[in-house]
User: What shape does this take?
Amino acid sequence: MRLNADLWNALDTFLDTASDAELARAKTTVFNLLASARDRETRILVKSVYRLIIDEARTRALLAHRAQRSAPRPALA
Assistant: This one.
C-alpha cells in the first residue's frame, strides 16, 4: 500500500497548520492505528506518519524554547 502525492501533501499541510492540541490528538490516533496494524506494509506506512508527527512536535518545542531564550531580558543594575 502506498499513499499518493495528494495525501502526503495534505499531511504536510496539516502538520504545518495544526494547533498543538490537534497535533496531540493526531499523535494519539496514529499511535492507536499503529498498534492495530495487521500487515507489515500498513505498519511501515503508519509508522512513517507517526514519525512525522513526532518530528513536528519536537520541532515546535525546540523553536518555542529558542524563542524563549532569545527574548530580551532586563539588564541587572
Summary: The first helix runs from residue 5 to 17. Residues 1 and 41 are 6 Å apart (CA to CA).
